[in-house]
Automatic annotation (TrEMBL):
<dbReference type="InterPro" id="IPR050072">
    <property type="entry name" value="Peptidase_M20A"/>
</dbReference>
<dbReference type="InterPro" id="IPR036264">
    <property type="entry name" value="Bact_exopeptidase_dim_dom"/>
</dbReference>
<dbReference type="Pfam" id="PF01546">
    <property type="entry name" value="Peptidase_M20"/>
</dbReference>
<dbReference type="GO" id="GO:0016787">
    <property type="term" value="F:hydrolase activity"/>
</dbReference>
<dbReference type="InterPro" id="IPR002933">
    <property type="entry name" value="Peptidase_M20"/>
</dbReference>
<dbReference type="InterPro" id="IPR011650">
    <property type="entry name" value="Peptidase_M20_dimer"/>
</dbReference>
<dbReference type="Pfam" id="PF07687">
    <property type="entry name" value="M20_dimer"/>
</dbReference>
<dbReference type="GO" id="GO:0046872">
    <property type="term" value="F:metal ion binding"/>
</dbReference>
<keyword id="KW-0479">Metal-binding</keyword>
<protein>
    <submittedName>
        <fullName>M20 family peptidase</fullName>
    </submittedName>
</protein>
<feature type="domain" description="Peptidase M20 dimerisation">
    <location>
        <begin position="161"/>
        <end position="258"/>
    </location>
</feature>
<keyword id="KW-0378">Hydrolase</keyword>
Length: 355
């Protein structure tokens, strides 16, 4: 386990919150894998480096996908330290521990007789959307039959994930002198009334097995020019995380049914929809039980989204599964070291049985 901890620490010390830093982390991973006799293929897209490493053979492919980029942090967060079985540092949980475990798993699997191909994908832009790396990979044919993304899940399985729909909604009013607001129609007030009505739309009240409801965040209100004028236009920006069975056109149509506003889609991300009955998910559940003291493996839905969505778009089962940790993107981010070792062993045994 000591070498695994050392690898995680080395990765944390690389400030990979920028493109340059993330590419530096990829170079480190490349040298580490090469030193252990593994073959690697480095790709580049729009300046972002991607690393592909593959072992085994067969008709089917298991993909292990991890990102080495992190959100920005304080300088001290790139100086890892251990305390009470936890390793602290930026990216420790999200997701350099998971990446390190995947790298060790590939090294251990190199000389095994495997039933399938195991492909490690290390990417550098997940935290800013994944458009240049995992999206590029899936559209270039780097796909398989099942995908594990090493997001921190406390050794549970993130089976589904909400989609994301970010909208700018232009609401128009009528200008008037600020001293006589009754002669105009305040676009800001109309926007806020629209927002309250959106919360009562049918899509906003739907639920599913893993989600109580979609989330609707009023992120920005932009309107008005001067104090003494009733604003005649307002842009309301919404961040909507919708349920896997919902779709963007239905949501937009329901919003437009309230008010003949102008709706612009700023960002759209596909949801992730998997079934717990999937044969590979059932096999993974068995491996988690065999390597932990969990009587019941937690299977849940994610409110945010990860690179799993790019595989899901092609109908490929892709889950979030990683070690235990907490406070990722926060000041006290840490990963539980025992869970990282367990995670590595689960990956190895799952890969051996994958077919």
């Amino acid at each position: 386990m000591g070498n695994l901890i050392s690898l995680i620490k080395d990765l944390i010390r690389i400030d990979s919150s920028t493109k340059q830093g993330a590419n530096e982390a990829i170079a480190y991973c490349e040298n580490w894998l090469l030193a252990r006799g593994l073959t690697v293929n480095k790709l580049k897209n729009n300046g972002f480096d991607i690393l592909i490493c593959e072992v085994g053979s067969g008709e089917k492919t298991l993909i292990l996908n991890g990102h080495v980029d992190v959100v920005s942090g304080k300088e001290i967060q790139f100086q890892p330290y251990e305390a009470e079985g936890k390793l602290y540092g930026r990216g420790s949980a999200d997701m350099k521990a998971g990446v390190a475990a995947m790298m060790f798993a590939m090294a251990d699997l190199k000389d095994e007789e495997l039933n399938s191909k195991i492909q490690l994908q290390l990417v550098t832009d997940e935290e800013i959307g994944g458009y240049n790396c995992t999206k590029y990979l899936t559209e270039s044919g780097y796909v398989g039959e099942f995908v594990i993304c090493a997001e921190p899940t406390n050794l549970g399985i993130g089976l589904q994930a909400k989609g994301v729909l970010q909208l700018d909604i232009l609401v128009r009013g009528k200008s008037a002198h600020g001293s006589r607001p009754w002669e105009g129609e305040n676009a800001i007030l109309r926007s806020y009334e629209l927002y309250k009505n959106i919360l009562s739309l049918p899509f906003a009240k739907e639920s599913s097995e893993f989600f109580r409801y979609p989330s609707i965040n009023l992120a920005k209100i932009t309107g008005g020019e001067v104090y003494n004028k009733v604003p005649d236009a307002c842009v309301m920006s919404l961040d909507i995380r919708f349920l896997p069975f919902q779709n963007r056109q239905m949501i937009i149509d329901q919003i437009r049914s309230i008010d003949k506003c102008e709706v612009e889609v700023v960002l759209y991300g596909d949801p992730v929809m998997n079934s717990a009955d999937n044969i590979h998910i059932q096999s993974l559940v068995s491996q988690i039980r065999a390597n932990t003291d969990k009587d019941k493996v937690e299977i849940f839905g994610q409110h945010g989204f990860a690179d799993t969505r790019y595989f899901s778009k092609f109908g490929i089962p892709a889950i979030e599964f990683g070690p235990a940790g907490n406070f990722w993107h926060g000041d006290n981010e840490y990963v539980d070291l025992k869970s990282v070792e367990t995670y590595k062993e689960i990956l190895i045994e799952f890969a051996k049985s994958f077919k």
